[in-house]
Amino acid sequence: MGAVDDRIGELGLTLPELVAPLAAYVPTVRSGDLVWVSGQLPFVDGKLPVSGKVGAEVAPDDAARLARTCALNAVAALKAELGDLDQVERIVKVVGFVASAQDFTGQPAVVNGASELLADVFGEAGRHARSAVGVAVLPLDAPVEVELVAKVRG
Fold this sequence. Notes:
By secondary structure, this protein is α+β, with helices and mostly antiparallel strands. About 30% of the residues lie in helices and about 25% in strands. Strands 1-2-5-3-4 form a five-stranded mixed β-sheet.
């Protein structure tokens, strides 16, 4: 285990098992020194713990915790691709999708859950550019989905 794995343990976190893709795609694609991680839903033990729209069925604070879970799942996908999270030089970009009630405008605060997890895990290298997008619906009626791009060594 490397320094990033140690930090994950210090945070009291455990990387989950990678959930199989729901459709015709792969969890990650490496191109040169970039790894693109497909959108991750907030699966816990292979199941979606809650569904619905943020600002209606799902409270924004709960959605932020779900975005954190999405980011942890993305880190697990990176680990499966790289084998060693210490190869991550920087999280370059995060895109968070928030299934939003029609009048909900707090998408940035929801996606902060993902951003904060990545900063906790990778330190300064976890700070990234980001988009937080409100959408009508996500797969399986998930409240949030997070994808990312990481720059890696080697």
